[in-house]
């Protein structure tokens, strides 16, 4: 449906927000205690909670994005390496980049926002209520925090897909293959390892041995249709939607949040950004989501013990 061109979506909505953005956020933050109480009232009754999460949640765990100012791996940013063209030109370099990102994740941990979401999912499940995380993050920190109901719309750093047979598999090996051991250093003066393609990660399906790629959605690629359909079903039936660590007016949350708001379902944002708030997005909690989210999701007085 919608290609993974975050740039397109962000540009479109950024332009519109420049026109209609109003300083509603300021007004809301001055009433933040009232705002929180009102959110909590709705949260305590919600049966199906959809939580859209973005880069901000991972950033609070120190996960680099390789985007924006200072966000470089060697001489490049993610949008130059995370493309099918870059991989076909130089699979060794792209694998070094992903190997580095996988290894970095061994040193990172879920933060209080991930943990609050996971705890909330388990608690509400016991009450016959449902929480689903729809995330653009590929680092699996939600899974490590204990969340189970997760849709990874951009795939995972810890999955591979075979270029020949298409087989997808979980892969937590460190290093992912012998030739990448000790490779992937991010410093700008590091030379490419130039690993021969047959020594890069290869498919282990019987008789295949095809080249593996990271099972993530690259720039210019479309989202997996099944995952997208599932996400839309989740958003269609939710009665409360949280947008965490991103904004509901930029891709990818912008694919989902407006349709939720259009049904009259409350949308609550938890992020660092000054969002062009409209009345359709009911709540906005400004600040690091590791700080703002836990008190919002903690057990409500009216919940059964
Ligand atoms: Zn294969």
TrEMBL record:
It is found in: Cytoplasm, Cytosol; Mitochondrion; Nucleus. Zn(2+) binds at residues 162, 165, 203, 208. InterPro entries: DHS-like_NAD/FAD-binding_dom (IPR029035), NAD-dep_sirtuin_deacylases (IPR050134), Sirtuin (IPR003000), Sirtuin_cat_small_dom_sf (IPR026591), Sirtuin_class_III (IPR027546), Ssirtuin_cat_dom (IPR026590). One of its GO terms (molecular function) is protein-glutaryllysine deglutarylase activity. NAD(+) binds at residues 54-73, 136-139, 245-247, 271-273, 289. Its main location: cytoplasm. Its cofactor is Zn(2+). Residues 29-305 form the Deacetylase sirtuin-type domain. Binds 1 zinc ion per subunit. GO terms for cellular component: cytosol; mitochondrion; nucleus. Substrate binds at residues 98, 101. It holds the Pfam family SIR2. The active site is at 154 (proton acceptor). Keywords: Cytoplasm, Metal-binding, Mitochondrion, NAD, Nucleus, Transferase, Transit peptide, Zinc. It catalyses: N(6)-glutaryl-L-lysyl-[protein] + NAD(+) + H2O = 2''-O-glutaryl-ADP-D-ribose + nicotinamide + L-lysyl-[protein]; N(6)-malonyl-L-lysyl-[protein] + NAD(+) + H2O = 2''-O-malonyl-ADP-D-ribose + nicotinamide + L-lysyl-[protein]; N(6)-succinyl-L-lysyl-[protein] + NAD(+) + H2O = 2''-O-succinyl-ADP-D-ribose + nicotinamide + L-lysyl-[protein]. It comes from the Eukaryota. Its EC number is 2.3.1.-. In contrast to class I sirtuins, class III sirtuins have only weak deacetylase activity. Difference in substrate specificity is probably due to a larger hydrophobic pocket with 2 residues (Tyr-98 and Arg-101) that bind to malonylated and succinylated substrates and define the specificity. HAMAP family: Sirtuin_ClassIII. NAD-dependent lysine demalonylase, desuccinylase and deglutarylase that specifically removes malonyl, succinyl and glutaryl groups on target proteins. Has weak NAD-dependent protein deacetylase activity; however this activity may not be physiologically relevant in vivo. Belongs to the sirtuin family. Class III subfamily. NCBIfam families: PRK00481.1-3. PANTHER family: NAD-DEPENDENT PROTEIN DEACYLASE SIRTUIN-5, MITOCHONDRIAL-RELATED (PTHR11085). This is NAD-dependent protein deacylase sirtuin-5, mitochondrial. It comes from Cynoglossus semilaevis. The lineage of its organism: Eukaryota, Metazoa, Chordata, Craniata, Vertebrata.
